[in-house]
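debug: dumping io for the single-chain case to check the tokenizer round-trip. Nothing else runs in this session.
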Amino acid sequence: MVKIRLARLGAHKRPFYRVVVADSRERRNGPFIEILGTYDPLKDPSAVTLDQEKAKQWLQQGAQPTNIVKKLMRRAGM
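debug: decoded output
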């Protein structure tokens, strides 16, 4: 199954995330299919950038977003 989820980047105690499309069986920071955007929780307010067209395409193809990514998509205006 293909999932839309977060991959963690950044330094120790300074998280930064990519919103990626990946196979659900792969590890969190493992290989991914495509990058859809970024999420920076340390900015005030937290910054979410998302390529909405690509995300809609993946959702139409059956990709399942995780709960946190669903919330980020709503915040980004999807």
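debug: round-trip ok. The longest helix spans residues 67-76.
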